[in-house]
Amino acid sequence: MNALAVATSNVLPPVRGSLEAHGSLADFIWFRTGGPAEWIFRPADIDDLAAFLAALPAEVPVLAVGVGSNLIVRDGGLPGVVVRLPKAMAKVSVDGELVRAGGAAMGITVASAARDASLAGLEFLRGIPGTVGGAVRMNAGAYGRDTADILVEATVVTRDGTVETWPAARFGFTYRHSALPDGHVVVEALFRGTPGDKVAITAEMDRIAAEREASQPLRSRTGGSTFKNPPGAKAWELVDRAGCRGLMVGKAQVSEKHTNFLINTGGATSADIEALGDEVRRRVRETSGIDLEWEIERVGVAS
Q1: CA 157 to CA 187: how far, in whole Å?
Q2: Whole-prediction pTM value?
């Protein structure tokens, strides 16, 4: 255990869930790369999370991580505490036109619950390969729809352990971004659908699934969409035009199938992946004058 971990362990509050020192993130992060978390906390429930954050010294960083589908964890690991919500906080229920989902619920689970209740407007969540908590934090979207379009309110545990319900407007949503402060954790969200035809809803979800399968490297170790689409342009087209299709740094590669995806071909480091992304950004800037913004979140320290 390193000195920082020893120091932190002396101030970690008691929990009813589990605390794991030097917890592996590469075991579940989609890229399968990166160093360990100093601590991984899996709370038993919302009250356990709130009590832990209330007692945790303010200087200890906290990051909620779902399935790591849009994340690069640098090779030196992640200081502080990573919060992973348990399956018990992944429940989804429907009441009229409202769908209530735990922060650990997957997008496809929410979309399927809405479909089963003949609620339209949530089909795009079928194409979001992450959790509800992550979708709210980054205003995840696909196929012309964003989380901001359907969110009514969300329950948040703040960094100081306060449990609050935020209306959608408080999140200050913009493209692939919210104003949720660091260390806050989304533990539940309430979405609104509209009554629809179950057959049509099912067909739209099937279309989304087929389109993803045809156009994205779903069976590769990837991190989803790498760069945000600039106003009036598509990131993949700019990357392709810059001659980056198939470009490699170490064992990291720009996908041949979809150029806004980076993939770990086997044995890549997080440094390889991040360096490849920065090289792509440089080439796009050189050929088009456009500065691509990272959509993938990059956290932790270099090795």
Answers
A1: 7
A2: 0.92
Catalytic annotation on 225? yes
**End-to-end alpha-carbon separation of the chain, Å?**
16
The helix (run of H) or strand (run of E) holding residue 203 is helix 198-215
Verify that 81 and 107 share a domain, yes or no: no
Establish whether 24 is a catalytic residue.
Answer: no
Residues 31 and 268: their CA atoms lie apart, in Å, by 9
Active site includes 176? yes
Range of the structural domain that residue 240 is part of: 217-299
Same domain, 290 and 274: yes
Residue 219 banded pLDDT, cuts 50, 70, 90: confident
8 Å CB contact between 230 and 292 = yes
Residue among 69, 178, 220, 225 flagged as catalytic: 225
Inform me whether the pLDDT recorded for 167 exceeds 50. Answer: yes
Mean pLDDT (whole number) for 19-37: 96
